[in-house]
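2 proteins. here.
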Amino acid sequence: MPQIFNLQSSILLPAWPDWGVFMKTIGLIGGMSWESSIEYYRIINQATREALGGLHSAKSVMISVEFAEIEALQHENRWDDATRILVDAAIGLEKAGADFALICTNTMHKLYESIQKKIQIPLLHIADATAATIKKNGINKVGLLGTRFTMVEDFYKGRLIDKYDFEVLIPADNDIEQVHHIIYDELCAGIIKPASKQVYADIIERLVAEGAMAIILGCTEIGLLVKREDSLVPIFDTTEIHARAAVEMALEN
């Protein structure tokens, strides 16, 4: 049966007298795009309430960057300049009291190591959280959708292959360009088109025909478009997984 993994909370917690004392502060580097940053904030607070009940919400701080500037640096291959912007944001989160941080986008995990070495608090890698969830479901061959950078370059799929022993399939060249175009020109601008949904559904079908046992939505905007009925195999939404993993980390004793 088609299904999408939304990682509903299964956190088992002891009955501390005051959860606010034991909740870590989550740092969020957002704005890439703000459409998906909204989802991070919503999911994190929803998962916190599911775990703790009542009026509980997450302790968090967000620094939101200017995405038009980041997008230009990406496509001009100016990754050093982009690194400086995100390092400044990460240092800002640390100074603001965050106990750990998330980069609220898949693509900018290309800079993960450069950012992590500049701060003392840990960065929760989106691919690590996603891989842990997939492994629990006994899946080892996945299709990956994301920006061209995420699908083609090695920083993301290489981590899944080398660290977690996954077999990772990506779309054909023309499909890669379509996926990339829809992300930047539509989803990041809040534009949801039925025709684009069908494009993604067709690409997913081709990946499944090649043997993909599941599909990773490796861009934090794709979940705005792709839904359960668009795939015959499980879909792993990295936004949902990353956000809920942050809540688990925040509530660890």
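next one coming up
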Amino acid sequence: MERLPGIGEKTANRLAFYFLRLPDEDLKEFAANINDLKSKTKMCKVCLNLTENDLCPICEDAKRDFGVVTVVESVLDLLSFETGNIYQGVYHVLHGKIDPLNHVDPDDIKISELLVRIKKSPEITEVILATNPDMEGEATAIYIKNQLEELKKTQKREMKITRLAYGLPIGANLEYADYMTLKKAIEGRNRF
């Protein structure tokens, strides 16, 4: 179990002893669920979220705003948005980011699927680029923005392309912020 991310020797030992104390029926059910994990999990046909059905629960939810699509790098990023119930739009999961040093090109992630989706969906009025604020995430966001701008021209359509704001986290002290964080906080400031 130490091979699992975030699981060290002590946690692995605790888990092993926990499993030893479980009733046989519970342990068999747990093992069956782990065994079925890969075979039953597939990508949503619309947003590429992970699901057991053709559509994920988000894409099946009629209360969602299908006109706003947030583009995220991973399913874990999507889950971060969903945890706080702060967003009512839909998503597109790229399953990676452009990373030339590790030989990940735009064709290796789900950008073309995003462009096809937008071409076929005139109800999409805004695309929020929510890639991580690192070099690869920025490169991915810029690449997608350029592709979307070209799409807007060829389809002669109105569509906002936005980026998540950057800045200081709640409760942070300015003295500990790096210059890039402060620069982005100044650039993204709002009326108070």
